[in-house]
Amino acid sequence: MQIRERLSEGGVFSMNALSPTQHSTAYQAIFNTLKDANLHPYPLCFSIPSFMRHGYG
């Protein structure tokens, strides 16, 4: 099933991806894929200290 099929009109899809600073090419590819699917991506990046201790972000 496609994401768009699961969203109601005006619905919001949230995705935990990867660090744009450590994996900028992959981050951009995910953004472009969502954009190409007309999902209107809005990148949001913030640090979560507990994730950082484990090497994420």
Oligomer: single chain
Measured between the Cα atoms of the first and last residue, the distance is 30 Å
Helix percentage: 25-40%
Mean pLDDT: 84
Shape: globular
* Uncertain stretches of 5 or more adjacent residues: none
Radius of gyration: 13 Å
In what range is the share of β-strand residues?
under 5%
Task: Give the total of beta strands.
Answer: 0
Determine the number of helices (DSSP H or I, runs of at least 4 residues): 3
Order of helices and strands: HHH
Secondary-structure-based class equals mainly alpha
Major pleated sheet: none
Summarize the structure.
It contains 3 helices and no strands.
Structural account:
- By secondary structure, the chain is an all-alpha fold.
- It has a domain at 20-57.
- 37% of the residues lie in helices and 0% in strands.
- The chain has three helices and no strands.
- It has helices at residues 3-6, 24-36, 49-52.
- It is globular.
- 0% of the residues are buried.
Task: Give the topology.
Blueprint: H1 3-6, H2 24-36, H3 49-52
Q: Any descriptors?
A:
57 residues; mainly alpha; 3 helices; 37% helix; globular
